[in-house]
Amino acid sequence: MKFIYPAIFSKDADGVFHGYFPDLEDCLSTGETLDEAIENANEAACNWLSVELEEDGHLPPVSDPADLELKEGEIIRNIAANIRLFDGYDE
């Protein structure tokens, strides 16, 4: 099943991109480029959501990107994570 959560990215003084998910506590990513940070965010979100489903059986609500306040230099991207909900189930 596909889940889509917004992630916020910014570039630090060394040129490294950092991303975080406002809805997924402590789910972070980094990358030398924005594309790499987005790719790493996808993997981080898949792992985070899989653990959350296994441990708690539910996922946090998704923020509307329009409601998120961005600081200067931040950009927002929706990250899609494909999660297998049942063993043996293929999408």
From TrEMBL:
Residue ranges of domain HicB-like antitoxin of toxin-antitoxin system in the record: 5-65
Top-level division of the source organism's lineage: Bacteria
InterPro entries from the UniProt entry: HicB-like, TA_system_antitoxin, TTHA1013/TTHA0281-like
Any one Pfam family match given in the protein's UniProt record, by short name: HicB_lk_antitox
Name this protein carries in UniProt: Type II toxin-antitoxin system HicB family antitoxin
Biological source species: Muricoprocola aceti
Taxonomic path: Bacteria, Bacillati, Bacillota, Clostridia, Lachnospirales
